[in-house]
Amino acid sequence: MAKTLRTSGDYTVKAGAGYNSGSGSNTIMLDAKTVRIPGDLTVEGTQTTIDSQSLTVEDQFIEVNRNNSTAGTEDSGIFFNQGSSNNQILYYDADQTEFVIGSTTHDATVSAISNITPGKIRILAGTESDQAATKGYVDTQIGGGFSLKVAGDDSTQITVATGNTLQFTGGSNISTAGAEPDTITMSLDNDLTGITSVTSDASNGNLELKANGTGHVVINDTLTFSGMATDPTATAQTKVYNKTAGGGGTGLYFRNSNVGSGAVGELISKSKATALAIALG
User: Fold this and answer.
1) In what helix (H) or strand (E) does residue 270 lie, and over which residues does it extend?
2) Distance CA 190, CA 202 (A)
3) 172-225, pLDDT tens digit by residue?
């Protein structure tokens, strides 16, 4: 049978000495399938425990640390109970003015977090590579240098916005500037120095030295030709090479398909030329 208890003023139900006496120890139990409170509910005390399998909150925002009246001095957040393991926590660190996520040996009764091991945030479901990292972690990981391979006509996409710079630092001072949509310009801040060897990595490929415009390739020192085991094939371009000296007395040979039907010729030395001139009168 439904029953309504109506009073004209405040109504108090007290068990034993009650809570406000400071010595109360009795309990009031409401035993029903559903307990509904149409009005506001204010719970005063040192602890509120909700022992249910699910909690549904209609409000868009949840306020914690409600009675804090000081500006930016108290830590606050949410604890995640992990049983016998350390608690996990997401909280605002008032001293550092930043949010922190990680594990702690504290319980939720603590007033300030002084023990925290930073945790990881996964931004996409997947592997370790999908986790967010701090700037310090990234700097440490790439502090020893990293490799960047740009291959033409493959599936790799490297986006460099206009005005940004991708720079390779080192003794050669190479800088790379990007421009939309897909242009990367590499330049040298100074002349290359300390180079002892330049080798083509293409099998049987040429190594070409080419000056700009009407400029010339200038050699300001001794030019040494290594000995050739065989004569090179004759082409329309003159090939100069070295092998054992013959009648010309220089050992410096040339070959061009347009000169002497491509026959091998040897540059003649000054002494040989003088001797021939005398002999031929």
Assistant:
1) helix 270-279
2) 27
3) 556 666 666 666 676 666 677 777 888 888 888 888 888 889 999 999 999 898
Q: What is the pLDDT of residue 263?
A: 95
What's the structural domain count of the chain?
Answer: 3
Residue 199, token pair as written in the block: 């080798």
For 262, the domain range is 239-279
- Give the 3-state DSSP-derived string for 223-251, with helices as H, strands as E and coil as C: CCCCECCCCCCCCCCCEEEECCCCCCCCC
Residues 132 and 178 placed together within one structural domain of the fold:
no
The answer on 138 and 77 residing in a single domain is: yes
Q: For residues 78 and 108, state if they share a domain.
A: yes
pLDDT score of 142? 64
What are the C-alpha distances in Å from 179 to residues 143, 185, 187? 26, 8, 14
Q: Is the pLDDT of residue 256 over 90?
A: yes
List the structure tokens of 197. 């060897």
Residue where a domain terminates, one of 149, 181, 201: 149
Residue 180 belongs to a domain: yes
Number of Cβ within 10 Å of residue 238's Cβ equals 13
Do 81 and 136 lie in one domain? The reply is yes
**Per-residue pLDDT reduced to its tens digit, 137-162:** 777 766 655 555 554 455 556 666 67
